[in-house]
Amino acid sequence: MLFSPSGFTECVREWEDLEKNYQQIQDTHRLYKQKLEEVTRLQDSCSGAISRQRKKLRELRLSLEECKENHPTPKLSPEDVDAIAGIESSMNERAHAFSEMEAFLPQKNGLYLKLVLGNVNVTLLNKQSKFAYKDEYEKFKLVLTVILFVFSFTCRFLFSYRALDALFNFLLVWYYCTLTIRESILISNGSRIKGWWVFHHYVSTFLSGVMLTWPEGALYQMFRNQFLTYCLYQSFVQFLQYYYQSGCLYRLRALGERHNMDVTVEGFQSWMWRGLTFLLPFLFFGHFWQLYNGITLFRMFQLPECKEWQVAMCGCSYMVLFMGNFFTTLGVVYQKYMNNQDNKPKSF
């Protein structure tokens, strides 16, 4: 016998307890599925109601425009003008409210996510999940920035092997591809990442892929050290940006002046004026380094011995990165400067 009578009795009692617990698990799971079906119906109902109201708001907006055109202001009473202005203001606020609501409703994936993931629903349905995913995204960027810094330092100063360079470029391709996917998911969940900073990562993915395919040769060795030194500097600046921007965002979120799903970016944003602007020289130096890389590659492309198509493609990519980063950063700086000029007290 495997069990003594007392041991067998304890096993039977344990089994009976497990049976009761199993029944409770079944009941809980059944209730969970019912609630899940209810949630799905509520999601569809809410999404449909928002779509219908948006359509009616557009029609109402057109009707109000017709009223103002057909009945000029002199023919409208001051009360009517104020009423129209109040309705239009409320409509604008409602559009913002709908956007906040839709952040917690399933949405159709954009073209990029459809190509990568298909029609899988990527909308996170509670704030805790959204914040956890955003924080994990920030940690992912920080960890990979440190790894890329160490990797580029190793390739630049310790080892000079084409296979190791290829591994470094493959890591860059994977990193930027992953960033584009994660950022698309964040945007679907309410994060307000500016268009250029998303497109910037697509260009960086393309550039890294072209560098990965660049064969070993005299031209590759001519550009190699400049490229690795640039990557080393870029990782250093991104590391500074992460800590500086995360500190700014933390303070502004606490004050209720920034959206909770805002993330750090590889550039200068208007909200960064609330703290020190010491990052600007580093950023502009990096932008002009991209210009220098582009000019260097175009000069290499004009050499008689240049046969690789990668030289021209990398040059074009660096020029796109320079123009996008430089003019985006310059635009933010100019806009903030003009806003500060308008807010200055005027002397008479």
In short:
The protein has 348 residues and is mainly alpha-helical. The protein has helices at 5-70, 78-102, 111-117, 127-158, 162-188, 195-213, 218-254, 279-301, 310-343. The longest helix has 66 residues, at 5-70.
Biggest β-sheet strands, sense, barrel: none
β content, as a range? under 5%
* Distance linking N and C termini: 105 Å
Rounded average pLDDT = 82
pLDDT below 50 for ≥5 consecutive residues: which ranges?
1-5, 263-273
How many strand elements?
Answer: 0
Order of helices and strands: HHHHHHHHH
Please state the CA-atom Rg, rounded to the nearest Å: 29 Å
Give helix % range: over 70%
Count of DSSP H/I helices: 9
What does this structure look like?
The chain is an all-alpha fold. 78% of the residues lie in helices and 0% in strands. It has helices spanning 5-70, 78-102, 111-117, 127-158, 162-188, 195-213, 218-254, 279-301, 310-343. Helix 5 (162-188) packs antiparallel against helix 6 (195-213) and helix 8 runs antiparallel to helix 9 (310-343). It is flat and about 70 Å long.
